[in-house]
Amino acid sequence: MKTLSESTFEKDQLLLIDKPWGWTSFKVVKIIRKKIRNFLGKNLKIGHAGTLDPLSTGLLIILIGREYTKKMDFIQNYKKTYTGIIKLGCITQSFDSETEEYNFSSTSHITPELVQEISKKFKGEIDQYPPSFSALRMEGKRFYEYARKGKKINPMKPRKVKIYKFYILKIGIPYIQFFVECGKGTYIRSIAQDFGTAIKSGAYLLSLRRESIGPFSIKNSYSMDF
User: Known catalytic residue: 53?
Assistant: First the structure.
């Protein structure tokens, strides 16, 4: 992995960033905007092509300059790949490790064979409910802004998303390591939640790393270690 420095920045470019754990996508954009202003002496239009949750790591595409930010919608339509870990036997309100575990249940009935069988349900076009802790907007605010304040929102309608590949990498109950290739708008946290429902034990997304977006790979990314 390459180390990002101010000499890396240009007026118009696409940067591949390995987003650190605990950082918001907006924080990455904010820091790079400041570095560009200090190095080039001007403010440039800057954005990212596809949000990553704070507790997720991996590839974040930063677009710098007017010409590159015009490509944002095009890039967001690329297929994305992730690796992650699902924890069975309980759920969380956020569908990931941001909130506390509750509603504990037995995993004694779960075998590797059952895990593999359930995984087949998560391929092709599926209906998915976005998590309440999401960046979707309602009345000008993000859903997670309501959720983190404990405010209830109206139930969301399911959305159709496309899962091109979903397979299990490793099983060590209550943990399942997986790989997924999916289309735009897919919530991996919702896949974890729905996997738990399908296997009758509850589950949430313990960790997640985005490996690629279309032709762009995490292997060619820069770290944020200035």
Answer: yes
